[in-house]
Write a structure and sequence with these properties.
With 460 residues, the protein is an alpha/beta fold. The protein folds into four domains: 90 residues, GMP Synthetase, Chain A, domain 3; 157 residues, Rossmann fold; 61 residues, Helicase, Ruva Protein, domain 3, CATH 1.10.8.60; 90 residues, Chromosomal Replication Initiator Protein Dnaa, Chain: A (Orthogonal Bundle), CATH 1.10.1750.10. It is 54% helix and 9% strand. It is built from 19 helices and eight strands. Strands 5-6-7-4-8 form a five-stranded parallel sheet, with helices on both faces. Helix 10 runs parallel beside helix 12, helix 16 crosses helix 18 and helix 18 crosses helix 19. It is globular, with a radius of gyration of 24 Å. The N terminus is likely disordered. It binds adenosine-5'-diphosphate (ADP) and magnesium ion (MG).
Length: 460
């Protein structure tokens, strides 16, 4: 089985397996540990050719899920490693080939179904506590609501729905609630997991005809926390089961806490009754950070890290320049701290600029979807409002598709985020636009020229 590789040159295999390791690292950094272990960890590199790889999944379900949710990102990451074609397959694990495949550890062996009633609870991050959460204007409502739920012996609002963009502290708040309840009232059964894991468990239960155990398990908890609920959209059976579980728990007056990347009413791909149900309790949004909050977070992190001698100027500089999200802000600080630690240099503004050169450049160059819409509208002589309007005539639809395509290419926004910026369109509409333009570019040279020109204008 080790001979699966179609490339014979040994060094090429080694290159591709380290490329695969890099791709996996990026996926983990981008999507977080929970998502990574559910979906990416079980994948392995089954075949590797000069510019083509086959990535295998252990089951059809996992493969389909990857194909419908993550294939674009997977393709992009492979492309950045010089691999043009990525095929997704379903395949047994190769018996031995440690250089290429890493046996997934997070995944339990499929022949046992006992875990449907066992360990569904995702691990809590020990750093994510109320004490380490910095409160500012953008997150004060979400914080207050989280604290109330954590400290209340009764159920103050059901559900608590926390929503906001990536890296703004939603998971942190949820873990903080779970830690607090676990410590203050250990008898209460708290279950925290990602929506993807919930679905994964449910599908497993279906497969092993163990749905009863699944139902019992979820319906016996006192506090149920589901992170990143937007991933439940689309799957009818799991939505249905989620709704049943939800209703059963609410009826028994158990606390439910949910996070999502957008408000309940904007959760497209979710049934109407589900959306309205999710909005019944308290809906609290976490806004993008402002300068004060970023500075406060950095100061707290420095204090926690025990590092001394980080000049305020450096923290101010970082708060000004890294505005995207808290995760990146933390990452930047950690890099500076690690660097100074390793080479024994004191931290200064110059040193920070040097260490973060590439990161800062990427932040500067960051093109916004608004820029793209404006440029494209100007170029095609349509109104900016038509980027958001429901009008479908070719004269506006095509430029809109071009803008969606550029947004996917030039920004790090996800398909749903892009859709939202285009008048609340569905992520499938964006996906369709991207494919359409890719297709057209190959045959329509004037369109292809337009796109190149727009790209140059946007980058310059
Ligand atoms: P989300 O779930 O919203 O994508 P996370 O909760 O994973 O974001 O937060 C990303 C990182 O930023 C985590 O390391 C978290 O501790 C940190 N973070 C976010 N907001 C705050 C805050 N207000 N105070 C301290 N740390 C924060
Ligand atoms: Mg999160």
């Amino acid at each position: 089985m080790g001979a699966k590789l179609t490339m014979t040159a040994a060094h090429q295999n080694v290159d591709l397996s380290s490329a695969w390791a890099r791709v996996r690292d990026k996926l983990r950094a981008e999507f977080g540990d929970a998502t990574f272990s559910s979906w990416f960890k079980p994948l392995f590199l089954a075949e590797a050719g000069a510019d083509r790889v086959v990535v295998s999944a252990p089951t059809r379900f996992v493969r389909d899920w990857i194909a419908s949710h993550y294939s674009m990102r997977l393709n992009d990451l492979w492309r950045s490693e010089g691999v043009e074609t990525v095929e997704l397959a379903i395949r047994e694990m190769p018996a031995r080939d440690p250089a290429i495949a890493e046996r997934p550890r997070g995944i339990r062996r499929p022949e046992s179904s006992t875990d449907a009633s066992g360990d569904v609870h995702a691990p809590l991050d020990p750093r994510f506590r109320f004490e380490t959460f910095v409160v500012g204007k953008p997150n004060e409502l979400a914080y207050a609501a989280a604290r109330r739920v954590a400290e209340s012996a009764t159920v103050p609002f059901n559900p608590l729905f926390i929503y906001g963009g990536v890296g703004l502290g939603k998971t942190h708040l949820m873990h903080a609630i779970a830690w607090h309840i676990r410590e203050a009232t250990p008898a209460r059964k708290v279950v925290y997991l990602s929506a993807e894991k919930f679905m994964y468990q449910f599908i497993r239960a279906l497969r092993f005809k163990d749905v009863m155990a699944f139902k019992q398990l979820f319906r016996s908890v006192d506090v149920l926390m589901i992170d990143d609920v937007q991933f439940i959209g689309g799957k009818d059976t799991t939505q249905e089961e989620f709704l049943h579980t939800f209703n059963a728990l609410v009826d028994q007056n158990r606390q439910i806490i949910i996070s999502g990347d957008r408000s309940p009413s904007d959760l497209d791909g979710m049934e109407e009754r589900m959306r309205s149900r999710l909005g019944w309790g308290l809906v609290a949004d976490v806004h993008a950070t402002d300068y004060e909050l970023r500075l406060g977070i950095l100061q707290a992190k420095v204090e926690q890290s025990g590092a001394r001698d980080v000049p305020t100027r450096v923290l101010e500089f970082l708060s000004h320049r890294i505005t995207s999200n808290v995760r990146e802000l933390e990452g930047a600080l950690n890099r500076v701290l690690a660097y100074s630690n390793l080479v024994g240099r004191t931290i200064s503004l110059e040193m920070t600029q040097e260490v973060l050169k590439d990161l800062l450049r990427a932040n500067d160059r960051r093109i916004s979807i608004e820029d793209i819409q404006k440029r494209v509208a100007e170029h095609y002589n349509i109104r900016l409002a038509d980027m958001h309007s429901p009008r479908r005539s070719r004269a506006v639809a095509r430029p809109r598709q071009v803008a969606m395509y550029l947004a996917k290419q030039l920004t790090t926004r996800s398909l749903p985020e892009i859709g939202r910026k285009f008048g609340g369109r569905d992520h499938t509409t964006v996906m369709h636009a991207v494919r359409k333009i890719e297709e057209l570019r190959a045959t329509d040279s004037s369109l292809s020229d337009d796109i190149d020109l727009l790209k140059r204008m946007l980058a310059g």
